[in-house]
Write a structure and sequence with these properties.
By secondary structure, this protein is α/β, with parallel strands linked by helices. The protein is built from 18 helices and 14 strands. The N and C termini lie far apart (105 Å). This is EAL domain-containing protein.
Length: 437
């Protein structure tokens, strides 16, 4: 009887990815009457992934394991894979129903049980789906190996007192569906970030005009796939942004946060702006609110399907939204005709290269392009250093966004008080010197 139940592996008592892969390879010619089920305990809320919950979940499988030559693997992310020999779907489902009852108050398991669209389990009939199971085993083993490399790098870095240079595994096309499904199911509200766009005038405190809403990709990666780099493949990531767009729209439609009711911008795919999800949000917004919202489109997305963009642009402007072209650099800016393309705003990305470019013989070409677009309709974004403010002033741009601007605003009152104090001290010294003279 095959029975692998939480055997201790070098990686730890429950990290059985390698054992799982070896087992699946071994049964490659004996798949008749075998079924497997991948139980996604990692999708439960953290308070349902405590050790005693997981131990009870494993114990609930013991009867099935004993009766049908079952083999159970507990993976590092707390998922369970159960392989049986001769058990029917109904017989396996009796165990799954007990597990569902154990975690019945978890939000993921709310609603009616639909075996065909179940988020709790993925089923495999090995007579037809052996390739899918071995692909899962290979993926999980690769994730474990990448995690071990990362932990080793962190340990070495800790000894040397240096920040770790973490190895990153590129996101593979085969993983896209799993990551997209995780995005659809996860509660991403804690990953929602806001960054203001400020009107920056000389000698005046910057004034926030609206805030951009976005998900922290760094935190998203740590939450969903910590061993892989979601940004490694630009086109795969672009595909993932469609799912992030929809999650953002759901959060905005269901939110009870008064700070998210108006005066914000969303960076959306063109297809998302034409989707039912966006229409549902639009129907909840009044005319005055829509006028305070900016929809941002990426340059590449616009040029990928100009016809769809034109339709989306006309629809959004008719509804009262402002639209902004994002993803512009000083190299691509000369190609942009803001008025003809119908954009209200254009975002120009700041970096050190832009600042250096303005010291070359082609600086006047950039200034002329900015004037053609209209500096009052431009936002200098990604402002990460004081040089960004100087560059904006050089180009006549007064709308700015970036971490340096955020920090500058936070310290503005403190700096003003310090300047006032220094001025008072100088005046006092001047008077004292006058009295002595």
């Amino acid at each position: 009887m095959e029975n692998s139940f939480s055997s201790t592996a070098p990686e730890g008592p429950f990290n059985q990815e390698k054992v799982f892969l070896d087992f699946v390879k071994r049964i490659g010619k004996q798949t008749d009457n075998r079924r497997a089920v991948h139980i996604h305990l990692s999708r439960l809320r953290p308070y349902h992934q405590r050790e005693h919950h997981l131990r009870i979940a494993q114990n609930a499988c013991e009867e099935l394991i004993a009766k049908f030559q079952g083999t159970l693997f507990r993976l590092i992310n707390n998922d369970i894979v159960l392989v049986t020999n001769g058990a029917t779907i109904t017989q396996i489902d009796e165990t799954i129903l007990r597990l569902r009852y154990l975690f019945s108050d978890d939000p993921m398991l709310a609603g009616d049980y639909d075996l065909e669209a179940d988020q709790f389990c993925t089923w495999f009939d090995l007579t037809r789906q052996y390739a899918e199971l071995i692909a899962l085993a290979i993926q999980k083993n690769e994730e474990l190996e990448a995690l071990k490399l990362r932990e080793k790098a962190e340990a070495i870095a800790a000894i040397n007192g240096k920040p770790p240079e973490l190895p990153t595994t590129p996101l593979a096309p085969s993983q896209l569906a799993a990551v997209a499904q995780a995005i659809n199911q996860a509660d991403l509200s804690s990953l929602l970030k806001r960054q203001a766009i400020f009107l920056v005038n000389e000698d005046r405190k910057p004034e926030p005009l609206f805030k951009e809403l976005f998900f922290s990709i760094e935190q998203l990666q740590k939450t969903l796939l910590p061993t892989h780099n979601l940004l490694s493949n630009r086109w795969l990531f672009q595909d993932l942004t469609r799912y992030l767009d929809k999650r953002m729209l759901v959060i905005l439609r269901q939110n009870d946060d008064s700070t998210l009711t108006r005066s914000y911008s969303l960076n959306l795919n063109v297809a998302t702006a034409l989707s039912n999800e966006f229409l549902k949000l639009d129907q909840t917004l009044g005319a005055s609110v829509r006028k305070s919202i900016v929809i941002e489109f990426q340059l590449l997305d616009v040029f990928a399907d100009v016809g769809s963009f034109t339709f989306a642009r006309d629809f959004l402007k008719e509804r009262g939204y402002k639209i902004c072209l994002d993803g512009i650099t000083h190299l691509s800016m000369p190609m942009i005709d803001r008025r003809k393309m119908g954009f209200d705003l254009v975002k120009l990305q700041w970096n050190q290269d832009l600042t250096k470019f303005l010291t070359t013989s082609r600086a006047e070409d950039i200034r002329a392009t900015v004037q053609k677009i209209d500096p009052n309709r431009m936002i200098l974004c990604h402002c990460g250093a004081v040089e960004a403010i100087k560059t904006a002033q050089d180009l006549g741009i007064k709308l700015m966004q970036g971490f340096y601007i955020d920090e500058y605003v936070r310290n503005y009152g403190r700096n003003q008080k310090e300047e006032t104090r220094n001025l008072a001290d100088a005046i006092g010294r001047h008077r004292a010197e006058a009295d002595h003279s």
